[in-house]
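task queued by scheduler; priority normal; single chain, no ligands, no partner chains; default sampling; output format set to structure tokens
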Amino acid sequence: MAASGNASREPGDGAPAGPDPAAAPAAPARSYGPRERMVFSAAQLIRRDGVAATGMREVAAHAGAPRGSLQHYFPGGKEQLVNEAVAWAGRYAARRVARFLATMPEPTPSGLFAAMVRQWTDEYEAEGFGGGCPVAAATVDCAESAEGTRSTAAAAFAAWNRPVAEALTTMGVPAERAPALATLMISALEGAILIARAERSTRPLTLVSTELSPLLDTHLPSP
């Protein structure tokens, strides 16, 4: 999802936060249990390979978990694991909004959007274009996924949209406009990520930030 960069590892929500779910694949901290590590690893592999190409054995190996633990922790099989990874990624992206705001002396819609974009340009410049948003990947792979995964992806996007909208309202954007603008920001970012990976260039990300940011600030009240 569109939270990226090498964030600090922090516990919570049933999986290690580790690097952002949208960050380059990295092994989860071994201080967490097998279940938490597998949820985290599933998010990492889905963002890189998609749902269809992410196998249960690969997840267990990436997490350093015993293969036999898969059935124990995820009796619903791959669908359960994918759904939990996608839901966790949505919660993580939602929490990331507060981190962005905490770094801004005077938060603005354009400043928040620039921060959302910057995490991706930073990752791609440092790590290459191998990974995308795990929630978007699950959505694209809906033909290979159960209806439950589609609805989980929709809920994950909604979970991300809410804190963005709340942040915009706090900045002064009218409450009736904030949810739509939050959707615009997330949609523009997700599209730019997709094109950036296709082009192997950060150009789409830079462009969408440059073009959309001034428009977002027009929704602030006049001084």
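post-processing summary
- Residues 77-102 form the longest helix (26 residues).
- The CA atoms of residues 70 and 76 lie 10 Å apart.
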